[in-house]
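To start, one record:
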Amino acid sequence: MCFASAKNGAGVAALLDVFASLAPNATEGNAPPFLKGEGAEAQEFYAVPGAKAHVLAHVFKVIMDPFVGKVGIFRVHQGTITPNTQLFVGDGRRPFKVGHLFTIQGKDYVETDALVPGDIGAVTKVEEIEFDRVLHDSHDEDHIHLRPLEFPVPMHGIAVETKKKGDEQRLFEVLHKLEMEDPCFKLERHATTNETVIRGLGELHMRVKLDKMLQQYKMELSVKPPKIPYRETVTRLAEGHCRHKKQTGGHGQFGVCRIRMEPAARGAGVEFVDDIFGGSIPKNWIPSVEKGIRASAERGFLAGFPVVDFRATLYDGKYHDVDSSDMAFKIAGSLAFKEAMKQARPALLEPVMHVEVYAPDQYSGDIMGDLSSRRGRISGSEARGSSVVIKAQVPFAEMLSYATGLTSMTQGRASYSMEFSHYDYVPNEIAEKVIAAAKAAKGVVVEEEEV
């Protein structure tokens, strides 16, 4: 154990002497095994820390510098890299020529003529370089790489949007740069909720990223919890009928359709069945009915969430030789869908996540109780030494603030992972609140929305 002060320099010289005399050099280090080839057939080999051997270097950090661009920082395990060396990145077939070669002194990049085994260096403006890639000068067709590093899965998410109009494109550019730098930072774009969501390892991690975006990129953001991607569905058989007739002078609009709606298997989406006999609706207009049903289902019925997991069967209708059209039957299909939904006893669905919590055994009771209070169903637990893995099915709506709660409950000694499992019915008392909030946000009554 060495004592030193970075503030006044006391003991720093002695500390460097300890590194020079006691720390392992490049020939003594416990280097990781490299792999050549793909999958199960990959062959393992070790770097030979010789300056005259083929080059092997590992990129362990990527920085998006606002002045010099993309910076790849690597450790040389084998061979010598000079400013004229041609290198390949991983399994890339196009080499790049090293231009300026740097060592790093704090925030400064110091140009150097060569890097040998044990050295840490950097190259700039090489777009092919990515985190955890191997740089090599081998012309073999085999893929040279390391075993992927295992990182905790980013679970804590927040929805972000720019405060300044017109900054949306720049926002994605900045977030992509942060994603390239940090393997535990993820960017997601949710089309169903129309939100941009960023995920990290916790509240502090997100706060650091937001502060960096403000200080380095001058990007001000509004943040909020992500929306829950609810869905709607039907719970019983129902029929809908629409006679759409509109006369405005000249050609009018006329279309009649009768549909039958029934629940389908969970995850089936929207199924459309053409059961027309006798030509009551010509074949060329049946797709228009389907488009109307699907468009109306996408807009939702109860609270504006997409309606899924139902089968709509078109079994009868009427047409007019002059006034019928694609638009007329699309509107008829949409209105027939809404009529059927009134009788189909619609219900709200919510995403349920499969959650695994890893924690010391002493916290297992508190964790199980907390998951149960979040409407979770414990599916099992497994002891691993002095730790325990608790598995549960928990609604996504109850997991938005879980990272903070788990940290405080276990003094930061627990972690968790979750992935989507399935959709399930929302309890009535909660569904009523969700529907009321959705309608209030829209400022309209969803069922009466015009086509």
